Amino acid sequence: MSGPTLHCWLCGRPFETRIQWHHPVPKAKKGRVTVPVHPICHRTIHATFTNAQLARIGDDPESLLQDPAIAKFVEWVASKPPDFHAPTRRSG
Q1: pTM of the predicted model as reported, rounded to 2 decimal places
Q2: Where along the chain do its domains lie?
Q3: How far, in Å, CA of 89 to CA of 84, rounded?
């Protein structure tokens, strides 16, 4: 019997083999909690927000989804397989 399936904190898709652990409040800002994310989701979060912005947002993925770039990314990645990989561009 296996345990519960983990889902990405940002996009909600299940994992296959690649899982990274994201600090919603960055370690540099005294964050201790980690959440599971896909590598592509992790890179997108850090390409979109500074550590200071992430510290203000905290551990609420719904707040991240209010950003148009993140909302567009999550909509785009929703149909991709769990281990999907693509280059991540910085917003700006």
Answers
A1: 0.85
A2: 20-77
A3: 16
pLDDT tens profile 33-69:
999 999 999 999 999 999 999 999 998 999 999 999 9
58 Ramachandran zone, left/alpha/beta (phi>0; psi -120 to 50): left
Paired tokens of 77: 């990645």
Please count the other Cβ atoms lying within 10 Å of the Cβ belonging to residue 59. Answer: 15
Rounded-to-integer distance, Cα 75 and Cα 25, Å: 24
16 to 20, 68, 84, 85: CA distances (angstroms): 12, 27, 10, 12
Write the DSSP assignment of the chain as a string of letters: ---PPPB-TTT-PBPSS--EEE-SS-GGGT----EEE-HHHHHHHHHH--HHHHHHH-S-HHHHTTSHHHHHHHHHHTTS-TT-----PPP-
| CA 73 – CA 41 distance, rounded (Å) | 9
State both tokens at 18. Answer: 């690649």
